[in-house]
Design brief:
The complex is a heterotetramer of chains A (237), B (55), C (231) and D (233).
Chain B (H helix, E strand, L loop, with lengths): L10 H44 L1
Chain C lengths: L5 H24 L12 H29 L2 H33 L7 H21 L4 H32 L19 H42 L1
Helix pairs in contact in C: 1-6, 2-3, 2-5, 2-6, 3-4, 3-5, 3-6, 4-5
Chain D lengths: L1 E10 L2 E11 L4 E5 L6 H8 L7 E6 L2 E3 L3 H6 L1 E4 L11 H11 L5 H12 L14 H13 L5 E5 L7 H15 L4 E6 L2 H7 L2 E6 L2 E7 H4 L4 H11 L1
The chains are: A mainly alpha (237), B mainly alpha (55), C mainly alpha (231), D alpha/beta (233).
Chain lengths: 237, 55, 231, 233
């Protein structure tokens, strides 16, 4: 690597990095606050999925606790792809992605910015769905462990989802392609998240849940690292 | 384990299995062969076109 | 590269002969397994096909890394060839596994970690094919293909781990739980010899198909080049 | 300011640029002309560090591409034929967003300056998607000059503009070019370009086939020059 003519210190590079991340998050939230397209779509869709499960699975009291983690994660997964597609379409429609790529900062900052705002949208949807679900089915979901699992699972899902959405938005089939690309590679997240959510809800011992939590954390770390390495190849010609 | 003493007759499944194996291999080979032939034909066509263009 | 090189023709012939030899060995040399009967003979080809699938999987991942590093189109051709062969052979392995499982476990499908992982890998490969189909520009197709291959290659071991963990915590095995029924039969020496012979033969089959498929990819690239020149 | 030597760009099998040599001094306003599909956009995208060159040397403001892309990007403004603006943000917010990412000191003041210059002060709080195409294009220029770059690149800025908007754009272009910047503009609209640019380079089949300055050509003869260049090539 060659040095820039105007030598910049690591510290100023870091501030630039975080400033870009913060700007992208600010921008995404402002746009969303104004149009409310993305969150509305995700929320309505998530509620519909919960509703459909009620009829599809006949959720009587006996069944509920067993299938609750499964229903929650299916809902989050589907709503998540909806959000990812929309969030990337915003960048692609008016060529804004090029505008971001022109900013003098390492491209991983753009990945992180989009990743964190996508994650924020997913977490917002989850925060709304959880109380609604517990009210509708009379299940207490407010367990700190469960919240931790949901956060870890969403991180893993969005880490790889942001990367693949940046890819699928540049193809001919666009939004159809994203779930097809994404679902087979997030299987470990779903397995681990469903299992550990179930563990917390049924009050299993921590030793039983711990392997799943470790798996989630490992997945998160590995896939954030991978996405950082590969993001450049996706946005550059 | 009752069936450990008497060997069950599973030859039908065996025959089905090997049929599937050789069938799949054949399908793949045939697909490779046809793709190869189609490409060769295209190549011939393009070469002729190039010759005509040059002459 | 309009005609296949002499070496490849010889390899083709050798491969066919070896496959015939392997088939004979499976039928006539390997003894009948007492607990499962004739269907156990599928085991040799089943495992060997999965082995070829694994070879293709590793080759695709390696080619993906090299492509992203060098950006040379030949590595993209190699990568897609490896994916295609791996797709076919994992599919064969899954089918043979199912047919084997039916009389033994009384079910076509068990959610065994290896079997499930293979099925998920098939889905990743299909997604890979669809991704490539959706991109016009050959450079971008190659880049995205390589990126997705790498994502798949890294997620598969974790998937396998997670499904195995899933099974160990919930030890509900469909069908009988006897050792024999789970496929862990003791192999007699002739069985072992057949097994390793099949492994070897299928590696040769892999090499032969891989070579052929790479030539096919090369030919297709050449045609695109020629067509572009004529336009 | 811009030095390009033997630039080659291939997309898969297509060779779009086959050895372009190109140079722009500070204060020069270069029009890059040529019919569609001759690689004008590709060329500008390489200069803007959005696309990697396959071969050759590119230096912008003394920095090499793509090795020192970040340094180049901070000295460069790029206006694409897409506006690169967010429809659901206001005029002011769009500039604020880009300004923050470029780390511009006194952002508010700089935004006011730019909006004044563009004549968009009145639309400060309008959502970008409610603006006309011409106003969006002007704002897009504002976005590109926000960080006061030494090099400005315009890719087909006249596409989709009506007569009034084009005249307005002419004014903007001459205003942003007047500060000793190096400007490169691509277009197939010869009429507007003729009065603006100081030099005309013609790109045909991936090479610069002809080049001339305004002084040499004299008024009204760009079209003839353009035609001759293609007959010669």
């Amino acid at each position: 690597m060659k040095r820039d003519p105007s030598p910049t210190t690591l510290r100023s590079q870091l501030t630039a990095f975080f400033r870009v991340i913060a700007s992208i998050i600010w921008k995404d939230l402002t746009v969303e606050l104004r149009s409310r397209e993305l969150l509305t779509a995700m929320l309505v869709f998530a509620l519909l999925v919960v509703l459909i499960f009620n009829f599809a699975l006949e959720l009587d009291v006996k069944n509920r606790t067993g299938v609750t983690p499964g229903i929650l994660w299916v809902t989050f997964t589907f709503a998540g792809t909806l959000g990812l597609n929309r969030s990337m379409a915003i960048e692609k429609d008016r060529g804004c992605l090029d505008g971001l790529l022109l900013v003098p900062v390492d491209r991983s900052a753009i990945y992180f910015g989009k990743f964190i705002s996508n994650l924020a949208f997913m977490v917002i949807v989850e925060i709304i769905i959880l109380p609604v679900y517990s009210a509708l089915y009379n299940v207490n979901l407010f367990h700190p462990g469960l919240l931790l699992v949901i956060l870890l699972g969403s991180i893993g899902y969005m880490a790889i989802g942001t990367l693949l959405a940046a890819m699928s938005v540049q193809t001919r089939t666009r939004d159809v392609l994203l779930p097809i690309l994404l679902f087979p590679v997030v299987v470990p997240v779903l397995v681990a998240a469903v299992k550990s959510s179930g563990g917390f809800l049924q009050g299993s011992e921590l030793a039983e849940i711990l392997p799943w939590l470790n798996l989630l954390i490992a997945y998160d770390v590995i896939f954030i690292a991978i996405a950082l390495m590969l993001f450049d190849y996706i946005v550059e010609e | 384990m009752s069936f450990q003493e008497i060997t069950p007759d599973t030859s039908v499944y065996m025959i089905a299995g090997f049929t599937v194996f050789f069938g799949m291999m054949a399908i793949y080979l045939v697909s490779l062969f046809f793709r190869w032939r189609i490409l060769k034909r295209k190549l011939e066509l393009l070469k002729n076109m190039e010759k005509r263009k040059n002459s | 590269m309009e005609t296949r090189p002499f070496g490849l023709r010889i390899l083709d012939a050798v491969t066919v002969l070896l496959l015939i030899a392997a088939t004979c060995m499976v039928f006539f040399y390997a003894p009948r397994e007492a607990a499962m009967g004739e269907v156990q003979r599928l085991f040799y080809f089943h495992v060997a096909a999965a082995w070829v699938g694994m070879l293709g999987f590793v080759a695709a991942g390696a080619a993906g890394i090299v492509y992203l590093h060098t950006q040379h189109i030949i590595w993209d051709i190699i990568e897609s060839a490896a994916v295609e062969i791996s797709l076919v052979f994992f599919f064969i392995a899954i089918l043979l596994g199912s047919i084997w499982a039916r009389p033994i476990w009384n079910a076509w499908w068990t959610w065994d970690p290896r079997l499930t992982t293979a099925a998920i890998l098939e889905l990743i490969y299909i997604a890979y094919m669809m991704l490539r189909q959706g991109i016009e520009d050959p450079d971008r197709r190659a880049r995205f293909g390589a990126v997705y291959t790498l994502v798949g290659v890294l997620s598969i071991p974790i998937t396998f781990l997670s499904i195995r963990l899933f099974r160990t915590i919930h030890p509900v095995v469909i069908g009988t739980a006897s050792e024999a029924a789970r496929g862990m039969f003791g192999m007699t020496p002739p069985m072992k010899q057949t097994f390793f012979f099949c492994f070897f033969i299928f590696t040769v089959i892999f090499a032969d198909l891989f070579w052929n498929r790479i030539l096919l990819g090369n030919l297709s690239k050449k045609i695109d080049q020629l067509r572009y020149r004529l336009m | 300011m811009i030095v390009v030597k033997n630039l080659v760009k291939r997309f898969g099998l297509k060779t779009v640029l086959r050895g372009v040599d190109f140079q722009v001094e500070p204060g020069e306003f270069v029009a890059l002309l040529g019919s569609n599909g001759t690689g004008k956009t590709t060329f500008l995208r390489i200069l803007a560090s959005l696309s990697r060159p396959t071969g050759g040397n590119v230096r912008i403001a003394g920095c090499r591409l793509p090795a020192q892309a970040e340094a180049v990007r901070s000295r460069l403004g790029f206006v694409s034929h897409q506006p690169l603006l967010y429809g659901d943000l206001t005029t002011e917010e769009n500039l604020y967003f880009y300004g923050r990412m470029y780390a511009i000191p006194n952002i508010e003041q700089r935004i006011s300056e730019v909006l004044d210059m563009l004549g968009l002060d009145f639309h400060r709080r309008d959502l970008v998607r409610t603006l006309s195409r011409g106003m969006q294009q002007r704002l897009s220029i504002g976005r590109a000059v926000l960080h006061d770059p030494q090099v400005l690149l315009f890719d087909e800025p006249y596409t989709g503009l009506d007569q009034n908007a084009s005249v307005m754009l002419d004014k903007m272009l001459s205003r942003v070019a007047a500060r000793g910047r190096a400007v490169v503009i691509t277009s197939h609209d010869l009429i507007h370009i003729e009065d603006l640019a100081t030099r005309y380079d013609i790109l045909g089949r991936g090479l610069i086939v002809a080049s001339s300055t305004r002084e040499k050509l004299g008024r009204g003869s760009l079209l003839t020059f353009y035609r001759q260049a293609f007959q010669g090539a």
